[in-house]
Write a structure and sequence with these properties.
Elements (H helix, E strand, L loop, with lengths): L19 E12 L2 E12 L3 E5 L6 H7 L10 E9 L2 E2 L7 H7 E4 L10 H11 L5 H14 L3 H4 L12 H13 L5 E5 L7 H14 L4 E5 L3 H7 L2 E6 L2 E7 H6 L4 H7 L5
Parallel strand pairs: 3-8, 3-9, 6-7, 7-8
Antiparallel strand pairs: 1-2, 1-4, 4-5, 9-10
The structure holds adenosine-5'-diphosphate and magnesium ion (MG).
The site of adenosine-5'-diphosphate has 11 residues, from helix 1.
Length: about 270
């Protein structure tokens, strides 16, 4: 049965959990009629790091893309249920998607800086917002590069091409670009999986610092990484949420057998 023809599960009229900046309620999603997410309900606490883990194809990226409606760009993709950002139902047609994407930024697996200077990469979002004063942009660029732990490495070459940076530096630049416009939530889809161990370590350190300013949601297929960086971990399997809880508890004392099998490496 097509998703659109199914009765909708009742959803609340507002986000009734004040500690959660995002609240997913009975979210289901299909691509061309084939289900990719099944009735997912969970909260994402503010100023914490939440990781999504699970085998390849279980729906982690699909769920992450719902948080800033990137799936809107995929033809044949239908969603049911609701996601609240603070008290706004973001899946509603009325939602201003441009504003949503300003509030919920995204970083992908492969670093994707623009073929412009380091400075222009970070200034980009500020210019889009209509900020013109050079001093204000200079300050915001410096602040974002410092926050992304990249400033010391690039301060002397801000006007050189971003494409000359190493992969790890490019990923920190993309993070700087995302945070320059002060989003509330930063989504990271396997942000370190294309990087070497040293660059990965730097990204993990950064995640730890950034949660003081932002709420972070990270997809990773690396369980050790989830255990290191996140406060909460959610385990997904075949489009469903199997278990979700404090990271320590989930890894030491999983409640579901499927979670235990996965974290002990019985399937992958
Ligand atoms: P994960 O990130 O956990 O590896 P995905 O969210 O990418 O999983 O994929 C979940 C399921 O949805 C998979 O079966 C995948 O083939 C399917 N899927 C993902 N993106 C698309 C798309 N753009 N069109 C059709 N099917 C898709
Ligand atoms: Mg993915």
């Amino acid at each position: 049965m097509a998703l659109a023809d199914r009765p909708a599960a009742a959803t609340a009229h507002r986000n009734d959990r004040p500690n959660d900046i995002l609240r997913v309620e009975h979210l289901s999603l299909s691509y061309e009629g084939s289900n990719a997410l099944h009735d997912i309900t969970l909260g994402i606490p503010r100023h914490r790091v939440t990781s999504f883990i699970g085998p390849s194809g279980c729906g982690k990226s699909t769920l992450l893309r719902c948080f800033n409606r990137l799936n809107d760009l995929i033809e044949g993709c239908e969603t049911r249920g609701q996601i609240w950002l603070e008290n706004e139902p973001i899946l509603d047609k009325k939602m201003d998607v441009t504003e949503l994407r300003r509030r919920v930024g995204m970083v992908f697996q492969k670093p994707n800086p623009f073929p412009r200077s380091i400075y222009e990469n970070v200034a980009y979002g500020l210019r889009i917002q209509g900020i013109k004063r050079k001093r204000q942009i200079d300050e915001a660029v410096e602040d974002a590069l410092r926050a992304a732990a990249l400033w010391d490495e690039v301060r002397d070459r801000l006007h050189r091409s971003a494409l000359d940076l190493s992969g790890g530096q490019q990923q920190r630049l993309v993070i700087a670009r995302a945070i320059a416009i002060e989003p509330e939530v930063l989504l990271l889809d396997e942000p370190a999986s294309a990087l070497d161990p040293t660059s990965t370590y730097r990204i993990e350190e950064l995640i730890h610092v950034l949660k003081e300013r932002f709420t972070l949601v990270i997809v990773t297929h690396n369980m050790q990484q989830a255990a290191r960086v996140s406060d909460y971990t959610a385990f997904m399997y075949q489009g469903g949420l199997v278990e979700h809880g404090p990271t320590d508890r989930l890894f030491t004392n999983p409640r579901q057998k499927q979670t235990e099998d996965y974290i002990t490496g019985r399937y992958g």
